[in-house]
Amino acid sequence: MKIEFVAAEAEAGAKAAIAVLAPENTPLAGAAAILDAATGGALQRAIDGGRFTGAKGQTLDIVAPHNVDAARVILVGSGPSGSFGAEAIEVAGAQAYQTVKTSGADVLVLKLPATSAELAAAAAFGVRLAAYRFDRYRTTEKPEKKPSIKKVRLEVDDPKAATKAFKRLAGLADAVIFSRDLVSEPANILYPEEFARRVKGLTGLGLEVEILGEKEMKKLGMGALLGVGQGSVRESQLAVIQWKGAKDPNAQPIAFVGKGVCFDTGGISLKPADGMEEMITDMGGAAAVTGAMYALAARKAKVNAVGILGLVENMPDGNAQRPGDVVTTMSGQTVEVINTDAEGRLVLADAIWYCQQRFKPKFLIDLATLTGAIIVSLGKDIGGLFSNNDELADKLLAASKTSGDALWRMPMPPQYEHNIDSPVADMKNVGPRYGGSITAALFIQRFVKDTPWAHLDIASTAWKPNSTVPTIPSGATGFGVRLLDRLVADTYEE
Ligand code: BES
Ligand code: MN
Ligand code: ZN
Question: Ligand 1 pocket, 325 CB below 6 A?
Answer without folding.
Answer: no
